[in-house]
Amino acid sequence: MATPPNWVTQLLPAPSTGADLLAAERAGSAVASDKLAELIHGGRAVLDMRARIEAQLQADTSGVFDLTDINSMSRVDKMTKSLARGKALKKLRREQRWSDEEYVYANGAAGEANTYGLHDKAFIKVLTDQGTEEQKAAFLVPAKQDKIIGCYAQTELSHGSNVRGLETTATWNPDDKTFTIHSPSITACKWWIGTMGRTANTALVMAQLIVNGKNLGPHTFVVPIRDLETHEPLPNVYVGDIGPKIGYGYVTRSGLVTNAQVRWTTDSRCSTTTRCRTRTCSRASSTSTPRRASTSAAGPLRSCTAA
């Protein structure tokens, strides 16, 4: 673009009284703004915490929290910066010893959701609320240490919030006590799953539990989808990035088709709320230690009550 002429560079904004009018209105108000802020946000302690977190983010000199040019970046650059921003937040969490509440606020104060958002908000949350103690030891502990990165795979190409209509199945195999997670049609493909496209190596897969030919409804399964060493998809798992979503161009979305035989021993397959009976699954033992099979491991987090 050509250099603008002097008459353009010398143009000034029109005079404005907006700031003066606003200051006058504020000066004439009898409302104590600090007390109002405390009422709205939950007290002085919350406001002090937020100010402290914001100061810590502003003190960062790496540039990962600078979003000035975010809308001009390519999608690859946005994702790269999203990963860097997420890692920086996790690093600050360890260094500053943030509580869960402080970490959640820091993610919001950073200005844009990052690639690890669903791992923190959905994957860890479901494992915390629905997992057995054995499953928490196997999955929740490494998830909190970021040794595994998870996503929540519910939405399918033909089904979103209609969980009862999901087509993906998880069939119980009583002979070797395993499950087969299967996408029986193209419309059963898990679709728009945030973080799965390139980042996640483990998925919480919502699937119809099939026991002895009977559909026992949707249950959540922990399903490894990528090798922890190479990050390549595991055998019988087809996964890939399906492109950006408006407002989330920096988070990889994916389609997932699976016909994976996933194994998990019966001593940790059932949740603390319901148990499978011995004719279909062995009763869970609170003292036993879960064993992973040689390929992968999974178990329903909200399990069946079989007839």
Write structural notes for this entry.
With 307 residues, this protein is an alpha+beta fold. It folds into 2 domains: 30-114, Orthogonal Bundle (Butyryl-Coa Dehydrogenase, subunit A, domain 1); 119-268, Butyryl-CoA Dehydrogenase, subunit A, domain 2, CATH 2.40.110. Helices cover 31% and strands 17% of the residues. The chain has helices spanning 6-9, 18-27, 33-41, 44-58, 75-96, 100-109, 117-130, 133-144; strands at residues 150-153, 169-173, 178-182, 190-191, 202-211, 214-224, 237-241, 254-263. Strands 1, 2, 3, 4, 5, 6, 7 and 8 form an 8-stranded mixed β-sheet that branches. The radius of gyration is 25 Å and the shape is elongated.
Write the SSE topology.
Blueprint: H1 6-9, H2 18-27, H3 33-41, H4 44-58, H5 75-96, H6 100-109, H7 117-130, H8 133-144, E1 150-153, E2 169-173, E3 178-182, E4 190-191, E5 202-211, E6 214-224, E7 237-241, E8 254-263
Parallel strand pairs: 1-5, 2-5
Antiparallel strand pairs: 2-3, 3-8, 4-8, 5-6, 7-8
Defining key terms:
2 domains; elongated; Butyryl-Coa Dehydrogenase, subunit A, domain 1; Butyryl-CoA Dehydrogenase, subunit A, domain 2; 307 residues; eight-stranded mixed beta sheet
Number of helices: 8
Assign the CATH class of the largest domain. Answer: Mainly Beta
CATH superfamily of the largest domain: Butyryl-CoA Dehydrogenase, subunit A, domain 2
What shape does the CA trace take? elongated
What structural category do the secondary elements indicate?
alpha+beta
In short:
The chain has 307 residues and is of the alpha+beta class. It contains 8 helices and 8 strands. It has 2 domains: 85 residues, Butyryl-Coa Dehydrogenase, subunit A, domain 1; 150 residues, Butyryl-CoA Dehydrogenase, subunit A, domain 2, CATH 2.40.110.
